[in-house]
Specification:
The chain has twelve helices and twelve strands. β1, α2 and β2 form a beta-alpha-beta unit.
Length: 339
C-alpha cells in the first residue's frame, strides 16, 4: 500500500511539473518584446504609453519599455552590456551615433514591412540595421516674451545680450547635445574651440539630457534652450500659446534622424521583428508628432499645431562626432565653466 501511495504521489508531482511547463506563466517570455529607449519617449507625456497600448491591442504581445536617460546613455549601456542586454529592440539612437552603433556588431539587418514608404532622405543606413523612426531639425527655442529679438546665427548666440541665458545639453550623454557640437564644428571647422570660448559666457547651464534641459526652460530658468524646430508645436497644441518659437539660423540647421534596430542576440527576435514592422505603420507614426514632437518618417497628416514650426532653407548633415572630439570638448568646458 505504501508503495502504491508513493507511486501515486510521485505520479501527481510529475504531472504537475509537466503541466507547469505548458502553463501560460512559463510562456510569458515568448509573448513579450522588450524595447530599450530614452526617458522622454516612455514618459507619461511621451508616445510610449500610447505605442504600448496600440501595439499590444494589434499584436496580442506584451510590450515592455526600459528607459535609460538620453540617447547617449542608451548607446553606452548597450555597448557595456553587449549580447547580455535583455532587449530585443533599441529605439532612439540617431545618425550621429551610427558608426559606433553599427561597428559594435550587435544589430541585425532587417527590412520591416512598410519600409518602402519611408522618406528616402532619412534612410541613413544602407544595411538596414538601423531603421528611421522619426526626424526633425535642431534649433534654439526661445521665450518671445523674454527675447524680443531672437538670434539669427550661431555667432549671435555669443553676444552680451545672451549672457547666462542659454541652456545647452551635454554631447556625451544627449543626442541633441551631440548634434549641437557637430553643428558648431560643421560651421567653424577646426576653429570650433574658439567658438565655444566665445559662447561660454552665454551658457546658463549644460544639462545631461533634453528632458532636464527643457524642464529648466519651461520653468523659466533661462529664455533659450537647445531643442528642435518642432518644439513650438507642442506649446500651441497643449498650452494654446504661440509664445515659444524656434529661431532660424542663416547657417542652416542639422537634420536629426532617430533610429531603431533589432538586436542580433534578441531573446524574442521574432517579436522584435513584429515591433519593427509596427514602428513603420500609421498606427505608430501617428503618435510621433504630438507624442515625440518630431516628424513621422512616412506620409501622414500632421496636426494643425505644426503650422507654427518653422522651416529652414538649408539642411545640414554634419559628420559624426568622435570620442576624441568629445574628450576635447569636455576638457575645454572644464576649463571655461569651472567656478
Amino acid at each position: 500500500m505504501y508503495r502504491r501511495r508513493g507511486f501515486f504521489i510521485i505520479s501527481i508531482a510529475l504531472f504537475l511539473l509537466l503541466a507547469s511547463c505548458f502553463s501560460p506563466e512559463k510562456n510569458t517570455a515568448g509573448n513579450t518584446v522588450t524595447v530599450w529607449t530614452y526617458d522622454s519617449f516612455d514618459s507619461e507625456w511621451g508616445p510610449g504609453p500610447e505605442v504600448k497600448k496600440r501595439f499590444e491591442d494589434e499584436s496580442g504581445l506584451v510590450l515592455n519599455f526600459a528607459a535609460y536617460g538620453d540617447a547617449g546613455e542608451l548607446l553606452s549601456r548597450l555597448l557595456l552590456e553587449g549580447e547580455k542586454a535583455d532587449a530585443d529592440v533599441i529605439l532612439g539612437l540617431d545618425q550621429n551615433m551610427l558608426s559606433r552603433a553599427l561597428s559594435s556588431g550587435f544589430f541585425e539587418s532587417y527590412t520591416p514591412a512598410g519600409f518602402e514608404k519611408v522618406f528616402e532622405d532619412v534612410r541613413v543606413d544602407s544595411t538596414n540595421r538601423l531603421i528611421p523612426m522619426d526626424y526633425s531639425y535642431f534649433a534654439f527655442v526661445y521665450d518671445s516674451e523674454a527675447v524680443a529679438n531672437p538670434p539669427r546665427s550661431l555667432e549671435e548666440l555669443t553676444g552680451e545680450r545672451f549672457t547666462k541665458k542659454i541652456i545647452l545639453l551635454d554631447p556625451r550623454t544627449s543626442s541633441p547635445g551631440q548634434g549641437f557640437f557637430a553643428w558648431t564644428r560643421e560651421v567653424y571647422g577646426t576653429a570650433w574651440p574658439e567658438y565655444w570660448r566665445r559662447l561660454a559666457p552665454s551658457i546658463f547651464t549644460i544639462a545631461d539630457g533634453w528632458s532636464s534641459g527643457y524642464g529648466l526652460f519651461n520653468s523659466g530658468e533661462a529664455p533659450l534652450v537647445l531643442s528642435y524646430t518642432t518644439s513650438p508645436g507642442y506649446h500651441l497644441e497643449y498650452e494654446n500659446t504661440e509664445r515659444y518659437r524656434a529661431a532660424i539660423f542663416s547657417e542652416g540647421h542639422p537634420l536629426q534622424v532617430e533610429l531603431a534596430g533589432l538586436l542580433r542576440a534578441a531573446p524574442n527576435k521574432e517579436n522584435g521583428r513584429r515591433f519593427m514592422d509596427f514602428m513603420l505603420s500609421p498606427s505608430f507614426q501617428e503618435t510621433i508628432p504630438l507624442g515625440n514632437l518630431m516628424y513621422p518618417v512616412i506620409d501622414i497628416a500632421l496636426p494643425d499645431s505644426f503650422r507654427i514650426n518653422p522651416k529652414s532653407d538649408k539642411t545640414l548633415l554634419p559628420a559624426e562626432v568622435s570620442n576624441s572630439e568629445l574628450d576635447a570638448w569636455a576638457g575645454l568646458m572644464s576649463e571655461l565653466l569651472s567656478p
